Each structure stands twice: as structure tokens, then as C-alpha cells.
Amino acid sequence: MDGIQLVNVFNIWSGSTNVTPLLGAFLSDTYLGRFRTLICGSTASFLGMVVMSLIAGIPNLRPLHCTGGSNCQKPEFWQLGVLYLGLGLLAIGAGGVRPCNIAFGADQFDTRTEKGRAQLESFFNWWYFSFTVSLVIALTVVVYVQTNVSWVIGYGIPAACLFFSIVIFLIGKHTYIITKPQGSVFVDMAKVIVAACKKRALSLESTPENSFYDPPCIESDQQVTKLAHTNMFKFFDKAALIADPSELDDKGLPKNSWRLCSVQQVEQLKLVVGLVPVWITGIGCFITMDQMNTFGLMQAIQSNNKIHNFKIPPGWMGLSSMICLSTWIFVYEQIYLPYAKKRSKKNVRLTMRQRINTGIVMAILCMVVAGIVEKNRREKALKQGSLLSPQSILLLLPQFSLSGLNEGFAAVAVMEYYTNHLPESMRTLAGAIFFLSFSASSYLNTAIVNVVHQVTAKLGKTPWLGGRDLNKVKLDNFYYLIAGLALLNLLYFNLFSCRYLVKNADKTPGSRHEDKGLEMNENV
Q: Would you indicate the residue range of the signal peptide (predicted)?
């Protein structure tokens, strides 16, 4: 595939793997539960890896090898179909795993106890740490095998690991805290929107509190936290307004749940709507990471990867991002926090605003450094008149490291905010929304790439993007454009979306939802 096509396919597939979690969250909350959804998702991912291994092992399932550097045979339509089947199964698997993985882990902690709250406080960082360590192993051992030994073995290793992880997960079934599905919050949110629209002509001025339908929550196996009525996004309050006593039956229940909703349902929707400003900020952070996953690797491919007699696989560049991310989390949790708490005797964690701001700054620096390095790489390649630049691949390490720090600060903080912002019953949705931001960044990045390619190609000068050879385009200008968008994201976050962050961000979900409404209303 040429540069634009491979970026489009990667971004669309990456976006799809982050959209399917919404469907997975719906099925988990309504029918399957988190444990069964995790099993189904893991199985689909395993089948997807099997298909990818078959493509690598059967020559007829892929085009012939490229000759002359950039002279490549185009794949047949049916060959792309097999590839898309494997990628599709992986996307379906992600839809089952991603929304439930964090939520199922958080279910194992009892936030009603001090010990449970303390364990949950570090759970998010350690989850990302273990996730990153596994990626480090994949980017070293697996990528080396794929590049220097065999693509079949390289795909077979993660497929085998996934199979054994499914077996181990099933063995531990009787040790888990498994909650039953409580019904989908998606349906409740749809009901609130429909009911509010039906009653849009009603006025809320001088409406007494007892005019709202606000029954007590029914306690079940899963802890349900009663949400207090707030004054933000007041339009949705109309959904819970009892306009006529006839809307209730003899038992005091709504005759039509699509016309009259409870205050609890309304407040759940308000919490999700309140996520949107920070969600947009997260998208801006993740766009930078997308560049390193595509164009950053293309830079590595066209750089000098020889260090003495050893060739560094281009895929290893992502390793520096993972190392920086995991190193920061380890230093923060195991060195900085214990030392700071010992000295101050207080909670000295960095606030979410501080972490997100730091992550955005790292994103800006990442793009600026990447642009400078790319311009130097291209000039040296053109001066030498070769596809590969004599510039060392090691000069790409700073931009990949900054991308990892962007993820370590911003992504972890955003994930923690989503999970802590929503009550326990909506944790699956929190996971889905987190990965949906990755999806939106991938799709937005695809649109930006195609627009920039078409616009710069029509200007008659050297295009910024396109083709298989980075030496024929000006990728550095594109990096500066993304840096400018990151700067706008920094201004947007500090001037607007940071006001939606909950003040007491260090509290746990089970201990703060009663006063959340007042806190968020005050922020707004």
C-alpha cells in the first residue's frame, strides 16, 4: 500500500477498534455481563490473530514482495478481503475487551472500605503499567522475530499468548467478583432525550422539587449510588417533570417510560454530557500519538538503522514510548508519591489538570521535534540521492519518547477521570467512552491527512503527504500543523474544558457521588 492508503486503513481500523467498545458496553450491561463479554471479545481477538497468521504463512493470501524499494504489486481485491476479515475480528474482539477490562478489574475492589479505596487509587496507573510492559515485550521480542526470523512465528506468538491468557482467565472464574447485567444506560439516556424533547415547551421556572419523579434507587448485587439533582443542563430536567398526575399509574410508576423518566436517569445523562468537553481535549492529545504510529514508523523505515553490525527493527521505535510511559508511572507511584507523602503527610498526587496540561505540552514538543528531525533526515537523503537517509534511526528516539510521556500524563489522567466521574453502575460506559476518544482521534486524523494531501498536491509545489517515499514530500510541515492544533487544544483545555473537571479528583467513585452535582455545578 502507498503512504496515504496505509495511513487510511490503519486509522480506520484503529478507529473501529475503539468504536466497537460502545456496542460491547451495551451488550455487557444489558445481556452478557462483563465476564462473558470479556470471554467473547478475547475469543474474537484470538480468531483475528489466527487469520493474520494464515496471511503471513500462505503466500497466495498476499501480494508478491516489493522489488526495487518502492516498486510494489497491488493486492488483489479478495486478498484485501481476507486482511479486512482478520482486522475486523480484532476490532470485534476489542469491542468486548476494552470496555470491560478496566471495569471488571475495578469491580474486584470494595470502595466501601478504606483498603479498597486505597487499592483502587493506584489501580489505574498499574493497569496502564502492565498494559505497557506487555507492549514492550511485543515491540522487542515479537517485532524482532517478525523482522528477522518469520512473520508466521511473529504472529503465532501473540496468538498463542492470547489463547493461554483466555485459559488462565477461565481458571480464575470462581475467584472473581462477577456482577450481573443491570440494564443498559444507553437506553435510559435515549429515553431522557426523547422525553425532554416531548416536553420542550414546558417551563421549569418556579418548579418545586417535588414536581420531579424521583423514586429511591433499588439496591442490587451491584452498588447503586443515588445521584442528587443538579441545576446543570437544565433542559434534560424536563424529562423528569411530572406535567400531569396521569403520567403515573396506581403504583406510582411511569405509564410511559419514554415520556417520564426518573431524576436518576436524568442525572446519569448529565454526567455523560459533562464528559464531552474533557473528551474533546483527549482527542486532541491522542492525534499526536497517531502520528508516531504511522508516519513516525515510516520515518524509521527510511532512516539508517544499522548500529555497528546490528540492524534495529523500525518497529522498535515505539518501544521508547512505552519505556518512557512505564518509567514515569513507576517513578511516580513508587518513588515520588511515597517520598512526598512521607515529607508532607498529605495527599500530594498531581491533579488531573496538571497531568493533562503536561501531556498536551509533551504533544506539542513531540511534533516540533519530529518536524525538525524529519527535515534533516529528508535533506540528507536527497543530498545522497538514496531512498534511505544516512541519518541514524536513533535520532527519532526523542519524538517517540515525548509521545510516550504525552500518553503517560494525559491518557492515564483522562482514563481516571472517566472512571471516577461516573458511578459504579456506569463503569463499563466509562471504558467505552475512553476508547471512543481514541477512535475519534483516528477518524479525525484520517480526515486531516486526506485534506492536507489533496490541498497541498493542488498547489503545484511539493506536497506534504503522499506516495511511498517520504523524501518526495514535506512531512515536517504536516508535523508543524499538528503542533499548532495541539497548541489550540492547550488553550481550549485551560480556557474552557478544565472547568468540567471535578475539584476533588482524588476521591473514589463510591465516596463522592453524593456531592458531585454541587461540585460540578459550581465548576460550570
A: none
